[in-house]
Amino acid sequence: MVRLRVFISRLLGFFRKRRLEEHLDAELRAHLQSLTEENLRRGMTPEEARYAARREFGGLEQTKESYREQRGLPLVETLLQDGRYGMRVLGKTPGFTAVAILTLAIGIGANTAIFSVVHSVLLQPFPYPHADRLALVWSIYGHEGRAPASGPELTSLRERSRLFEELGGIWAQSGALTGEGEPEQVGLGLVTANFLPLLSSKPQLGRFFLPGEQGSGAARVLILSDGLWRRRFGADPHLIGRSVRLNAESFTVVGVMPRGFRIIFPEGSSVPPDMDVYLPFPTNLASDPRDQAYIRVLGRLRKGVTIEQAQAEAEEIAAQLRSEFTDFSEPGLGLRVVPLQGDVVRKLRPALLALFAGVGFVLLIACVNVANLLLSRASHRQREITLRTAMGAPRGRLIRQLLTESVLLSCMGGAAAVLVGWYALEGLLTLRPQEMERLGTIGLDPAAFGFTSAVSVIAGILFGLAPALGLTRVNLVESLKQGGRSIATSQQHSRNLLVVSEVALGFVLLLGAGLMIQTFVGLLRVDPGFAPHHVLTFHLSVASVKYRTPESAIHFFRELRKNLAALPGVESVGVISHLPFDDSLPNWYGSYWPEGAPKQEQNTIMADHRSVLPGYFESVGATFLAGRNFDEFDVAENRGIVIIDDSVAEKAWPKTNAVGKKLNIENGNFVRDTVEVVGVVKHLQSHTLTDQVRGQVYLLYPRAVRQHMALTIKSTAAPETLLPFIRREVTQLDKDLPVYNVQPMEAYVEKARRETRFTAMLAGVLATIALVLAGTGIYGVAWYSVLQRTKEIGVRIALGARPRDIFGMVMRQGMLPVVSGLFLGLILSWSLTPLLAGLLFRVHPTDPMTWLASGAFLGGLGCLACYLPARRAVRVDPLVTIHYE
Questions:
Q1: Is 673 helix (H, G, I), strand (E, B) or coil?
Q2: pLDDT in the model for residue 485
Q3: How far apart (Å, rounded) are the C-alpha atoms in residues 297 and 300?
Q4: Which of 74, 519, 610, 845 has the most CB atoms at less than 10 Å from its CB?
Q5: How is the chain split into domains, by residue range?
Q6: What's this model's pTM, rounded to 2 decimal places?
């Protein structure tokens, strides 16, 4: 109660300051008057009596401050007072204030933009119920550690697991939506009945799938995405229960997913984020072939279960399956449990953390520059601080005042940084790689504003502390004698140390940017194995009942290829199941071995399987190393032949001609088959430009009929001029078949470069900012040093010093902290650059040329920054200088 009464009393005092100040002044005047009258009675003159009364009473201002601390809210009052005074001081030097705010806006704004990405990608949980308990279960076959599961495998997991609440699966496909309006190709998600409830609490309309709606013989039902519901059906609230035509079959709509719902799966999972339609699996998964793996498995752990515990259980289940079923024992099935969010961002995390550290360095350099500006201004405020100290102001009070000014300055820079950060984020998102696009919207949210505010306050304290401590360390006698001129010498050492630090940080950023730029240049020089120029691609899906027989699908694509090849300007037309760098459909790969291989060498190496028609290799400019291409006779006869790449050839028959050899592979019906190798092509990069993930086996389309195929057209005509003719030819063969995903082959290659381009460009921007700030910092210190030593330089010239001696002196003194900073930067970089090893390609973190170039560039920048002040120094007129002094 006592504390409450004291608080209420202080609160009332805070709002009655004027009345209390008047009472205080009146009381102090009464005390002084009483003491003065007493001194007069002792025989003093009026003037002596007043002085004696003041000496006896003590300092009036100190007494007032002591009294003020006993009432009101002194901390709030002093902060408000310091804030008002700080605003007046900053308003008197608009040039200084503008430069400092701009510097801080750049440093803090860059941090705001990168933090927004880091928070959205790495820190913010996915928008799913109990997102922290969602985990992916990958299958392991030999060297393949991220394989999908088969239906029986998923069924066994669900039956035997005790640590997962639910385990569901999805398989991404594509289909044609017909009926009302133009045919539209839509993304299909074939799911288990319990999959969607793992990722959403409830649908926007209708319901989720029922367990009885999955499997053969079940009712044909589907759930729409919000986007398709609005775009195709005008957001009709009465759509539930109605029928729609998908792949020429009738399905009943039972639900609509919530607005903004996305499936966020990792890159390489072949599960795109934006699905249009969800269907239950039409077959009984438990009866599928055990070695037919195509399902991506997602589960929710029980409360309190860790990933490590789930992994231990998964290993036990894998061991049971290997012991019970030959289909799981021969390839050596393993299971790996990983958190969903961690797996999605696994590739982005190193680059984002490196960039976040980079913008942190940029902010430190910005703080150093502002600290140098404050030190430059310190000499102009030395007399003010001296007088305030002489009048009794305690050092702590002065430091608080100066720090308040710094924080005010930093907060104004933070306010400007929000605008800088917004524009920087907009530019950054235009470069974002595909993995980041999967995560949906990234923007300035409340967390970003809170981060900006916190960084602004911390930065203000950081760059204001050293000048405040130095400025308030006052020797009253010397300062009053010299009028504050000693500040230049006393703080030059601090300014040089700040230059050392920003040069060191700038070197680290410049070196990192150099390594990333070399990585990107190396990526541009990678030969993907094909020529993407002047090649247009598009997709078609023959998933409707019209193409239930393989012969109908084969006839359609053969006729379409022949008609397209007859178009003017078309040089060649190809048909393939999977385009390079295209992750829109599930990948198809399986194990292979040469005929007669020992048992222990079988099921150990996998290759990507591709279904093609003649003309594909010519259309993409692939290089044949041996043998021949497919021809129309091979298609008509449906011959058991394949074309392999050099990677498969080397592993199957090292240093031997593979043409004519027999290869055991998984054919188009997922059955083991022995085929003859008729050709060897150079490996085509299909997943990344930096790694050769798997070799490739190309099968004839009649032996590996697929519903979803891509066509490649090499033409001398502009790609955009071909599209009307392509649509015409497709419509003539099937008016209900939509042409979709039309884009040049170069777009796929550019997509493969986006992640490295993203990191390299941002690193280059940060390094450029750091160089500008470091250069201005070096220039400012050298220039200010010349200004402070103008009299000394004038005397030296008057005594006979030659211009080159003066020039050399200024250059030596200016370059000393630069050289020291470079040396410190070398030490820091030696410790930090190995952390970038995972982001580099064809360049080593200790690449000597990059290190030398970075040091030479930054050293040259330092020389240029010192050169201009040195030129000014040699032009000093000694007569004018000495006369002025």
A1: strand
A2: 47
A3: 11
A4: 610
A5: 2-72, 143-331, 348-525+752-884, 545-735
A6: 0.84
